[in-house]
Write a structure and sequence with these properties.
heterodimer; A: mainly alpha; two-stranded antiparallel sheet; B: mainly alpha; 9 helices
C-alpha cells in the first residue's frame, strides 16, 4: 500500500508542474502537439526512473558537497542515451523536439527528485516515485497539448477535427503556451479552493 | 560587412528570437526572480556574464577537444559540467575581487547552473552551424551576449509589471502564477511584432 502511495502522489497530489511548479520550459515548449508531448513524457520518465534508481543505489558513496555534480553527471548520461536512441530510431521526433532533448538535463523536476527523494529512499520506492512523477508530468503535458493542438492547428494526433474551422496559429507559438498554462493553473486553483470551501 | 552580421545576430537574439518570450527557455528564474526589480536586475547581469563566458568556453572545448578526439556524443555531459564549473569559478572570483558585487549577485549565481537558457545557448551555438563558420567564435560569443541581454530585458519588464500587479485587485484564484503566465503571454504577443523585422 505504501508503494502505491509513493507512486500515485506524483500524478495529482504532488504533481510536479501544477503543484510544485517545476520544469516549465519543456512543458511549454514541446506541448505543441500530442505526439510531441507523449514522446517528451516518455523520454523524461525514462531519465527520471533510471537516474532515481542509480542515485538511490550510490547514495551512500556520494560525498555531500559533491552530490550536485555527481547527480547531474548521472542524469546527463541517461539524457545522452535518450538523445542518441531517438536520433537513430525516431529521427522525425528528434527533429521536432530539437534542443529540448539535451535540455532534459537541466529539467528541475529530475534534479529535484534526485535531491529530494532518491538520495534519501530505497531503490524500489525511488523507481516508483520517478515513474509517478513522470506520469504526472506527461499527463499535464498531454492536456496542454490537447488544447494547443486543437485550437492552434485544428488537429488531434495529426487528424483534422472540424473541417472548415480556421485555427489560430498563435496557440501553437509562445503566447498560446503561456495563456493555456495560465488558464489551466487558474482552473486548478478554483477547483481546489471550491473543494476546500 | 562583418559588423552587419554581428549586429543582426545581436538584434535577432535580443528581440526577434527572445529566449524567454519566443523560444521559451529559462522560465524558472523568469518566474522565480521577477518579483522585485532590484533582484531582477542583479539576476540579469549575472546571466549575461555567465552566458557570454559559457558560449566562449563551450565553443572552444567542442571545436578543439570533442571534435578532435571524435567524442561529440559527450557534448551534453561536457557542456553541463563546463557550465557548473564556470558558475562556481565566477562565484569565487567575484567573492575575492569585489565583495560588494558578490553581495548583490551572490545568491543568484548558483541558480544559474540549472537555468536552461545557459545550456540552451551552448546547444544552439552548435545548431546554428557556428562551429564550421568563419569567425565562428566571435559569432557564438555575440549570440551568448545577446541571449543574456534578451533574457534580462524580459525579466526587467516582467518585474516592473509584477510590482504594479501587487497593488491591483486580482481575484484570489488568479493570484500568483496564473496571472504571471497571462502577463507573459501578453508580453510574448507584443514581442511577436518583432518577428516581421527584416534587415
Amino acid at each position: 500500500m505504501n508503494y502505491w502511495k509513493e507512486f500515485i502522489k506524483g500524478v495529482w497530489e504532488r504533481n510536479p508542474i501544477l503543484i510544485i511548479g517545476l520544469g516549465m520550459c519543456p512543458t511549454l515548449a514541446v506541448s505543441t502537439s500530442i505526439s510531441n508531448a507523449l514522446w517528451m513524457a516518455l523520454a523524461a520518465t525514462f531519465v527520471l526512473v533510471f537516474s532515481n534508481i542509480i542515485i538511490s543505489i550510490i547514495k551512500g558513496l556520494v560525498p555531500p558537497h559533491l552530490r550536485i555534480p555527481i547527480f547531474i553527471s548521472v542524469i546527463a548520461t541517461f539524457v545522452t542515451m535518450v538523445d542518441l536512441s531517438l536520433n537513430a530510431y525516431q529521427p522525425e521526433v528528434y527533429k521536432a523536439l530539437g534542443i529540448f532533448i539535451p535540455l532534459i538535463v537541466v529539467n528541475c523536476i529530475i534534479l529535484g527528485r534526485a535531491e529530494d527523494f532518491a538520495s534519501k529512499n530505497g531503490v524500489v520506492t525511488s523507481a516508483l516515485d520517478g515513474m509517478g512523477m513522470g506520469i504526472g508530468f506527461g499527463l499535464t503535458l498531454t492536456v496542454l497539448a490537447f488544447f494547443r493542438e486543437f485550437l492552434g492547428a485544428n488537429k488531434l494526433l495529426g487528424l483534422t477535427v472540424i473541417p472548415g474551422f480556421e485555427p489560430s496559429s498563435a496557440m501553437i507559438i509562445a503566447p498560446g503556451a503561456f495563456f493555456t498554462l495560465g488558464l489551466m493553473l487558474w482552473a486548478m486553483n478554483s477547483y481546489n479552493s471550491r473543494r476546500k470551501g | 560587412m562583418e559588423v552587419k552580421v554581428f549586429f543582426m545576430i545581436l538584434l535577432g537574439t535580443i528581440l526577434v528570437n527572445n529566449y524567454v518570450l519566443s523560444q521559451i527557455l529559462g522560465l524558472c528564474p523568469f518566474l522565480g526572480v521577477s518579483r522585485k526589480l532590484d533582484s531582477a536586475v542583479g539576476m540579469g547581469l549575472a546571466v549575461i556574464f555567465v552566458m557570454t563566458l559559457a558560449s566562449f568556453f563551450t565553443f572552444l572545448v567542442y571545436k578543439y577537444v570533442l571534435v578532435t578526439y571524435n567524442i561529440t556524443f559527450m557534448s551534453t555531459i561536457t557542456f553541463i559540467l563546463i557550465i557548473a564549473a564556470l558558475v562556481q569559478f565566477v562565484e569565487m572570483v567575484i567573492e575575492k575581487i569585489s565583495p560588494v558585487l558578490y553581495n548583490s549577485l551572490g545568491i543568484f549565481l548558483p541558480l544559474i547552473t540549472t537555468n536552461c537558457a545557459v545550456l540552451g545557448v551552448a546547444v544552439l551555438n552548435l545548431k546554428s552551424g557556428f562551429i564550421t563558420a568563419e569567425m565562428g567564435l566571435m559569432k557564438a560569443v555575440v549570440q551568448g551576449f545577446g541571449a543574456g541581454v534578451g533574457f534580462t530585458l524580459a525579466l526587467i519588464i516582467m518585474a516592473g509589471i509584477r510590482e504594479r500587479l501587487e497593488l491591483a485587485p486580482i481575484s484570489k484564484n488568479l493570484q500568483g502564477l496564473p496571472i504571471t503566465f497571462m502577463t507573459a503571454g501578453l508580453m510574448a504577443l507584443a514581442f511577436l511584432g518583432f518577428s516581421g523585422m527584416k534587415f
